[in-house]
Design brief:
single chain, 242 residues, mainly alpha, three-stranded mixed β-sheet, 3 strands, 52% helix
């Protein structure tokens, strides 16, 4: 995928603060557990009303695993990635949360014809740095969201982290390096600037709706349990066939 560079840079610490804010405000998952599918289908639409999640066959998606659609606003996920995330695969979860990062930080720029780092624009963005890379920002958001610094900063060894979080040693090593980078960068962050950046990002969101779920939705979610089947809850609420 070609990278896209945006004018508004973001440090790892800024993105960490955003990820913590989103997880605190929206996620209903308890500490130590996180259901990615529930988050994108039930929690995230509180921030983006009308957001839809579409599952497409791997054949139609080709080499693309997931992407954010502009009109209507939604997240399109390949069937294998959706199933993987449903079964607790952290690789699949990271791919989905990468797209959520794009949605949160870059949705305002979606229709502006952003310059790609490829071909004619390469010299123009050369030297811009990772802080201005949309792909780097989205990946950093996924890592910060799935592996909260406040919970994972206690780990110092790959084996311990892999066992505790059910990760492969390769995945655990990557997460541990991520935590180490955040630990170092915290010493060089400006709290005032970080919070100002967060305010600018969150003010671009639609107003958060914190209405309680309907009695019907609560009962159906409790009965079905399976988050994939729970996607039909909203349709049932408005009298549409599932």
């Amino acid at each position: 995928m070609d990278d896209v560079f945006i004018s508004r840079g973001a440090s790892a610490n800024k993105i960490r603060i955003l990820a913590e804010w989103v997880r605190k405000e929206l996620s209903t998952s308890k500490k130590g557990t996180f259901d990615v599918i529930r988050f994108i289908e039930i929690d995230l639409p509180k921030l983006f009303p009308g957001l839809y999640v579409h599952i497409e066959s791997d054949n139609k998606m080709g080499s693309t695993r997931a992407f954010v659609s502009e009109d209507p606003l939604g997240i399109v996920v390949s069937e294998s990635i959706y199933e993987g995330a449903s079964n607790g695969c952290m690789f699949s979860a990271e791919i989905i949360m990468h797209e959520v990062g794009h949605l949160l930080m870059h949705h305002r720029y979606a229709a502006l014809g952003l310059n790609s780092a490829a071909e004619p624009y390469q010299q123009r963005v050369e030297g811009a740095g990772f802080a201005h890379s949309a792909e780097w920002q989205a990946t950093m958001f996924a890592l910060c969201f799935l592996y909260p610094f406040s919970e994972f900063k206690k780990f110092t060894g790959v084996g311990e982290l892999a066992k505790s979080s059910r990760l492969t040693h390769g995945q655990a090593n990557r997460v541990l390096n991520h935590i180490k980078r955040l630990r170092v960068r915290q010493n060089y962050s400006d709290t005032v600037l970080d919070r100002s950046w967060l305010k600018g990002v969150t003010e671009s969101f639609p107003k958060i709706q914190k209405a309680r779920p309907s009695k019907l939705r609560s009962q159906l979610l409790l009965f079905f349990g399976d988050t994939r089947r729970a996607r039909n809850v909203r349709r049932l609420e408005v009298g549409l066939p599932a």
